[in-house]
Design goal:
This protein is an alpha/beta fold. It has helices at 51-64, 75-81, 83-96, 131-154, 160-163, 169-178, 191-194; strands spanning 12-18, 27-33, 67-73, 104-108, 120-123.
């Protein structure tokens, strides 16, 4: 069972992103404030769940959360500011859209940037430790998957319904055969540049 909270009394929002390692499509992020006593035995990092359980939990999270928000950042911005900064920007914007202002942000991973007056803690593998981060990972993942299914209808050759924009063999072969779409990240291969924080 995941931990229900990091503190006893603060309003906490778990934050996570989906799609950071993709070659196409936006990066999505979610921020979720759960009730302090929220518990669900199925809840875990979205990557460890079946598709069926992710969508089942999404319904429960959206029904029982104190507040939640999902935000996407498109490829043009990703190419401009790099994927790490775009992931952080998505999380920040998701937080800003919450109906209730959190007193502490629980960030999955080890990189974040201060903004406004929000206090935060970066937690490596936080989506396997804290319920609110796991909930955010599920919302970000399922909302992004749904979005990629819609993009697949526009560009079916890339099989985004299966690979969701990740660099699978079929996706790479389609890129070589058909070229890049407006949804592909043009700077994907510049890994060092894509992992630098721009303060």
């Amino acid at each position: 069972m995941l931990k229900s909270s990091y503190t006893k009394d603060k309003i906490e929002a778990g934050c996570d992103e989906a799609g950071r390692g993709c070659m196409s499509g936006p990066v999505f992020a979610a921020a979720v404030i759960l009730p302090k006593k929220f518990k669900n035995e199925l809840l875990n990092d979205s990557k460890k769940l079946s598709k069926k359980n992710r969508y089942l939990l999404r319904e429960i999270i959206e029904k029982e959360a104190v507040a939640f928000a999902v935000y996407k950042t498109n490829c043009q911005i990703i190419d401009k500011i790099n994927i790490l900064n775009a992931s952080i920007l998505s999380m920040q914007n998701a937080v800003k859209e919450l109906a209730i202002k959190p007193e502490l942000l629980l960030i999955d991973g080890n990189r974040f940037k201060p903004f406004d007056d929000y206090k935060y803690e970066c937690i490596i593998k936080g989506d396997s430790i804290y319920s609110s981060i796991a909930a955010a990972s599920i919302l970000a993942k399922t909302y992004r998957d749904d979005y990629m299914l819609e993009l697949h209808k526009e560009f079916p050759n890339y099989k985004w319904n299966n690979n969701k924009g990740y660099g699978t063999k079929e996706h790479k072969e389609a890129m070589l055969k058909y070229g890049l779409t407006k949804y592909h990240r043009k700077t994907f291969n510049f890994k060092s540049q894509q992992l630098s924080l721009d303060f």
